[in-house]
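Consider what follows.

. . .
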Amino acid sequence: MSGRVVFTWRAALLAAGASLLFTFVVYLAARQWGTYWLDRRITEAIAWRAGEHGLTSAENMHDVRTLYDLLPYSMAVLILLASVIWRRQTALAGLMLAMLLGANLSTWVLQHRVGETKLVKLLNEPSWATFWPSGHTTAAVAIGAAAIMVSTPRWRPFVVAVAVLVTALGVMTNLMLRVHVPTDVLGGLGVAATWIFLALAAQLRWPQLQPR
């Protein structure tokens, strides 16, 4: 007995449920005025540190965030989709699309049903995208996971490194530029993680969904 821990599809489903519960808890916290002081302190601290190093005024910070706008995001999805279809794995392509659409549409629905603008209240500054949960966070985490999901074992270490770096930059720019507060970001992370673990459960359950 090697003692190696094997992550099964049932464990992935439990992780998806835990992510969903986490998202709900963050939602409850975001709707309570009592959490605003924490959001304020964290947001102001991150923005101050970023401003001290000249990051918030640098164009590259805004450029990183625009990577997750509709046009460049759609292009990235099409590139991933083409790479999978070229390998004749249409089922994997469908799973990737389902994960991406599920995560991003779920966030969009939540933003328009329960989201609220908090940054204006926190920092007394105008804002154009401060709904809960953060759509850019969901998009960044989901596309990074999609790239890893469809990568072959040979290229996976490289893809993981790039995906983690780009995803982390995309998430942090939300806070550095004062576009979102931490509960927005955590909500977006929770939504994305729920769909990612559901997709992982499907991959573990059906071997034909594994990249090759």
